[in-house]
Write a structure and sequence with these properties.
Elements (H helix, E strand, L loop, with lengths): L10 H4 L12 E9 L14 E5 L2 E2 L3 E3 L8 E8 L5 H7 L6 H6 L4 E7 L3 E8 L2 H9 L12 H13 L6 E8 L10 H10 L3 E6 L2 H5 L14 H13 L5 H9 L3 E3 L3 H15 L3 E6 L6 E9 L6 E4 L2 E4 L8
Parallel strand pairs: 5-6, 5-8, 8-9, 9-10
Antiparallel strand pairs: 1-11, 1-13, 2-3, 2-12, 4-11, 6-7, 12-14
Helix pairs in contact: 5-6, 6-9
């Protein structure tokens, strides 16, 4: 039951707060982002400003404000690394040095994986900014072909995060196209894995067409193909009538989807993600007498108008799918 986080792991930091939960009761975590009409993150809210419902029933909860959240971040960054991503990843490889200062902070850890026809671990969880930077350099290498098994990679990342200590806040950042290309794992099954462990998904998505025309000079990849091949691939993408998997992952887990076409746009997206992660509120409540399955969550901010509230849509309790066959 990996969604359940033992209260004892948080007792030291939450002892001064009320209400008091029994130490042997599983606790559900609900990270919440609150922004105003201009997109600025709102601080200074207290527990009296929030309402939390689980399956439509009001819950007593704890609240950690952003400046009081001490749980370190565990982040997996999943980068698309197939032929179609070659141009975009010439930009991606340049932002490895930004991960530690902007996103993980001094106490957090990041792992980097690449996905094309398969998921490849470029570095396991580390606090070393140099190791993270080196992993980003390897994202510019292609696995070959046009497969981009995004949902498979998400499921793999969720399992990596599930193995991390329960005291860490778990984040997945997907950098790639907005739609999956060829995964065996179903989107619903990947979501169960994420919901089990309170993983929040953020996405930095790009279009092969746009990134190809915003890459300059020596950044242009050398390929053996030709423009006709590229345009054929782009036409195939345009014809895909399938669900936008990145947006579905983000919406269900309470994250944000930020698109980019230029290096500056990618840097801006990462900066926005980092600011949000360090501005979130953390609500938690005991999961008592909960039946196995999916349970809905609704978070509201009371007596405030014009605010945008983002939080996970629910949590999964009980068994979840095993590894893909």
């Amino acid at each position: 039951m990996r969604i359940a986080i033992a209260l004892a792991l948080f007792a030291a930091t939450l002892a001064a707060q009320v209400p008091t939960f029994r130490a042997n009761v599983p606790v559900v975590l609900v990270p919440v982002t609150v922004a105003d009409s201009k997109g600025r993150f709102v601080d200074g809210l207290t527990s009296a400003d929030f309402s939390l419902l689980a399956d439509g029933r009001e819950q007593e909860f704890r609240l950690d404000a952003a400046d009081a959240v001490v749980a370190p971040l565990a982040i997996v960054i999943a980068v698309q690394t197939n032929d179609l991503s070659a141009t975009a990843n010439l930009k991606v490889r340049k932002v490895g040095s930004l991960i530690q200062p902007l996103i993980t902070g001094d106490r957090g850890r990041a792992a980097v994986i690449g996905y094309g026809d398969a998921t490849v671990v470029l570095t396991d969880f580390t606090k070393d900014p140099g190791v993270i930077w080196a992993a980003f350099q390897r994202t510019a290498a292609s696995q070959g072909g046009n497969a981009a098994r995004q949902i498979d990679a998400v499921a793999d990342a969720a399992r990596m995060l599930a193995a991390r200590p329960a005291s860490e806040r778990k984040i997945l950042i997907v950098v790639g196209e907005s739609k999956d290309r060829g995964s065996k794992t179903k989107l619903a099954d990947a979501l169960k894995l994420l919901e089990r462990d309170a993983v929040t998904v953020f996405a930095a998505t790009w279009s092969p067409y746009e990134t190809a025309f915003t890459t300059k000079g020596t950044d242009t990849p050398q390929t053996t193909g030709n423009t006709t091949d590229l345009l054929a691939g782009l036409g195939e993408i345009a014809r895909l009538a399938k669900q936008d998997s990145a947006k579905a992952l983000v919406k269900s887990t309470g994250g944000e989807d930020l698109s980019f076409a230029t290096l500056k746009g990618l840097e801006k997206s990462l900066s926005r993600m980092g600011e949000e992660l360090h501005s979130q509120y953390l609500l938690s409540f005991p999961a008592q007498q909960v039946e196995p399955g999916f349970h809905t969550l609704t978070v509201r901010v009371l007596n405030r108008h014009g605010l945008t509230i983002r939080a996970r849509s629910g949590y999964w309790f009980g068994d979840v799918p095993g590894p893909k066959e």
